[in-house]
C-alpha cells in the first residue's frame, strides 16, 4: 500500500477498516517514544539494572497534569512487571516481579499503601487486618518475588493527609527501601515535590525529573511527525508546517495530553468529512479546546544529571 507509506507499519492494517472503526481506534491508548519520554525510560532502566545497595536510588518524576507521566511509567512497567527465571536444579519456572506499579492512597495512609501493594500480587488478604499484618504480607511478597523497584503514581495524593501522616508515609517508604533494597519511584504533579520537604533526608534521597510543557521548537515538530505516522488517516497531514504547528501549539498550550486530545478530535473530523488529513481549517475548528491548567514554576532538572 504505497499510497499509505506515511503510516507506521502497525497502523496500515487499520486503514481498510470502516470509518466508525477507525474513529474508535483514535481513542485507544498509544505510545509515542519522544525524546523526553525515552530519556525517562532510560533513566528508570539504568536504575533498575544497578546492583542492590544499602541506600537505593530513589526518583521523583513530576510535571503538569496530563503531561503523559502515567503513560511513561506504564510503558516501562509492562516490560519488567513479570519475569520468568529457569531453575535448572528443580526443573521449575519461577515468577519474579522486578517492578511493581501502584497508585498512591487517596491520602497519606500507610495501611492503604500496603493494601495497594498487596493488590498487585493477587493473593488473599483482608483489608480489615491490622496494619502490622498487612505490612508483613507486603514485605514478604516483595522479597519472594524479588521486587527491585516500587513505582507510586499520583504521589501528590499523600499531601492531603496531616503532617504526621505525611511523615509516617515517607518514613514507611524509606524503611521499605532500606529493608528490601528497592528503588522507590514517585510520580505526580509538581506539588508532589513538597512532600520531600517533610524531612531533609527525603530530599537528599530523591533525585527529581521534571517533564516541562513543550516549547514550539524542533522537538515539538518531531512529535507532530510521530503523530502523522500513528493516526489512521488515508492522506499525509502536514502537521509540521508553520501554520498548523503553531495553531496546534497555541491551542494545546504545550500540554502533551491536550495536544493528543486535539489531534484525536481533528482526526475524527477528517474522517467524518472525508478530508482524510488534518488541515489548518480543521485545527481552527477546535480552538475552543482549553489546555490543562496547572502550576508552571518549578526548576527543570537535567535528565543527564541523574
TrEMBL record:
<feature type="domain" description="AAA+ ATPase">
    <location>
        <begin position="55"/>
        <end position="213"/>
    </location>
</feature>
<dbReference type="Pfam" id="PF05621">
    <property type="entry name" value="TniB"/>
</dbReference>
<protein>
    <submittedName>
        <fullName>TniB protein</fullName>
    </submittedName>
</protein>
<dbReference type="InterPro" id="IPR003593">
    <property type="entry name" value="AAA+_ATPase"/>
</dbReference>
<dbReference type="InterPro" id="IPR027417">
    <property type="entry name" value="P-loop_NTPase"/>
</dbReference>
<dbReference type="InterPro" id="IPR008868">
    <property type="entry name" value="TniB"/>
</dbReference>
